[in-house]
Amino acid sequence: MRRLLLWLTVLALALGGLWLGAEGLLVRELRRFAAETPGVGIGTLHELRRPGRIGVSAVAVELETPSGRLALPQAQAWVGPLHPTELRLDLPPQAVLDAGAGAMVLGLTDAEAGLGVRPLAGAEFRSVFARSGPLTLEGAPLAQGLDARARLADDGGYDVALSLHDLAPEALSNPLPLPGKLSLKATGRLWLDRPPSPQTLTPETMPLPTGLRLDGSELRLGKLGARILGEVHADAQGRAQGLLAVYTPDARPMLEAAAAAGLIPQKVVMLAGAMLKNISELPLPEGADFPAPASGELRLPLILADGKVSLGPVTLGPAPVFPRR
After folding, report:
1. How far apart (Å, rounded) are the C-alpha atoms in residues 287 and 309?
2. How far apart are CA 276 and CA 183, in angstroms?
3. What global pTM score does this model have?
4. CA distance linking residue 227 with residue 187, whole number of Å
5. 8 Å CB contact between 112 and 131
6. Each residue of 219-257: pLDDT tens digit?
7. Angle between helices 266-273 and 251-260 (to 10 degrees)
8. 28 near 44, Cβ under 8 Å?
9. H helices, E strands: number in the chain
10. Residue 295, SS3?
11. How far apart are CA 226 and CA 59, in angstroms?
12. How far apart (Å, rounded) are the C-alpha atoms in residues 177 and 195?
């Protein structure tokens, strides 16, 4: 028994040394990464020293992204000893965002993020997630919760899942005149122009989307609701092309909400509004395979082609542009 206790003590000391050494190495590597990477700033770093976690505690973290600047007063990054390729990030109750219109304080609740990498493939991202409970913006309620996840698929795209609860449009820096709070649940696949990795985190190399498939999505806008299915990809000019099917019992109010938000011209509402039932009954383009609408729903095809987006035969405007370098 004494010999067994001796060996257990030696093993515990060895594991403790490896743990402390790993945290020290992580601090050094993160300092080097911040020093060599444009757009990444870290005030201070030190070992986490927390049982069951190998990680670091950081103060004054700043990230410059193509969408703006993110500043965190503090954060903890760590991995579990049994899952060394899965990095977890515990986020503070507040962050500062600046998308070009001035700094704004984003309030978070029990927020965390995670990143899984492929060590034998240049640390390409295998999975990513971010979640938070109720959010605020400049102290005003922004949303009741957010959960976003992505995981690498066999074809190089990412299976994605997004859940956003009760986004308050009036709390945004540029409020949209929408008829109520917005909620969204969606699953699908996202394709990028290059695999994301630590080497592609600069504004010049950041991966950009080239295609999106919606396998299932539910949109709520106040009392209005819709489901959206379909797939779009970037054409040679970078504009979206493909076909989406919108299933909704609230087609006319949805069009009016889109016009009020400036997404489509008001005259389109007048033109398409009287034709919605007929548009729903039109045959879909050749090769399209979408389920029939449920009772009380219309199925409205959004056709994106030749740089335009059309609701059946009615042109709504230019097709959205995928981000380009």
Report:
1. 18
2. 24
3. 0.84
4. 12
5. yes
6. 999 999 999 999 999 999 999 999 999 999 998 888 888
7. 170
8. no
9. 4, 19
10. coil
11. 43
12. 37
